[in-house]
Fold Glucose-6-phosphate isomerase.
Amino acid sequence: MSNEIRSSGSGADAGAAVAVDIVHSGLAADASPLADQLVGERVASRLTAQDATLWGPEAEPEASIRLSWTTLHETSRPLLAEIEALTAELRAEGVDRVVLAGMGGSSLAPEVICATAGVPLVVLDTTDPGQVADALSGDLRRTVLVVSSKSGSTVETDSHRRIFERAFAQDGIDAASRIVVVTDPGSPLAALAEESGYRKVFLADPHVGGRYSALTAFGLVPAGLAGADIAGLLDDAAAAAPALAADDAANPAVRLAAALGAAHARGAEKVVLADTGSGITGFPDWAEQLIAESTGKQGTGLLPVAVEGPDAPGFADAADDATPVALGPAQGGARITTTGTLGGLFLLWEYATAMVGRLLGINPFDQPDVEAAKKAARALLDAPSPAGPVVTPTAVDGPVEIYASGGSWLSPGVASVADALRALLAATPDHGYVAVQAYLDRLDDASASLLRRELARRSGVQTTFGWGPRFLHSTGQYHKGGHQNGVFLQVTGGVDEDLPVPGRPYTLGELQRAQALGDGQVLAEHGRPVLRLHLTDRVAGLSHLIKAVQEVKA
């Protein structure tokens, strides 16, 4: 059951394409009636026409203001000239280094666009002091800061803005001339930018949610300033759009949605994403937020698992609770493949995810469980001590402190990291998953990402990996709202040199700690096992932790 759509949409290359192939014959058979259902209900054309009734009366108010993404390949065109003009101005002033401060939907798409295009973009989606300090150490005289926040009040992004504004001023640079804002009309950030005289304000379409915003100003402005071909990106989306809007069983989005819906009905509530030669860099990280935040609610949903490749544990050896999806040609036991241009794939997955929401009976445009972790973090920041409440470790194993919450899953006598990990894996429900959450520097502490592969190999269960706090704007919704069968490994680290946040009563290190503890608290309140391993020395602690993982037997 395969299909490839080629279309020469306006301005598009004749070879532009999106394609979906359901490789697994049993899954194809199960998907066929769901595809017929979607076609019979005219879901694709109604979605393109922005019909807010597709997900039921409860979802209608939210859906009515979240569907403009279906025509962005047309409506975002006027942005191109504005971005090109600003780029030329900045280059003429010798400004060619772009730093993006944004979380979730404000950073994931531009990072994929730029990485695929091979153009440099410094992304700040972290509260780690070391990673922010590294961005500050670049040549500020060549730097423009893009402050990107839909709500205009994202605490991480506001902190980055404050820190860079002070750094520009201390370097004798007019900060206002180096700050570009992307936000929704009427947001606090829009008002601040106007009051402060920032270089440029791009007001995004307010009728597009963050995770569907790849082709809005949130994706196009930072990518365009960095030098990516954003006009070509829109062309590629336009080439795929007619096929994705068709009420036809050959519609790739209908096929993908039907296959994912059928897999979920069979008990495969996890979607394992591996790049198999797509030519696109980092697409699984973008799709992860789209799928998790859109579908993971009301105790149901699809958990995306981004893995290192088709030979990675969790993909080639996926059990019946997971569907391996290749981003590129079929390899390593893939049951579905999706191929095409980046612009086309953005639109394909957005259409398919919205359709899956209808099949699952949920609203794919809200995120009801995201705010809980933010509230918990704020409460910790407001605690009498700036560093928050004193928490006593369960045990200390060399450079690693061990903390446990979420029930009595860890025996009182456990004294080593390896034993704590064994206990966490033993607490994983049948067909459950392990979520590794690293509140560290994803540049200097990059070896932490090895934990996903090693734990997946030893546990035999699906294992995700997220850098904190960025995953809070992504899979964080699923963790609290989706299938409640996860266990959670948090990794936090000591801070050698902290960064104060100007105008705020906390440092970045304190904010990072509050975000970890706050999310852990909410997960524990949901009855989920949470193991936090705090590295008092990051280098020694990571080495100790990886060795401990290698001691854990499957």
Notes: The chain has a mean pLDDT of 95. Residues 342-360 form the longest helix (19 residues). Residues 83 and 221 are 6 Å apart (CA to CA).
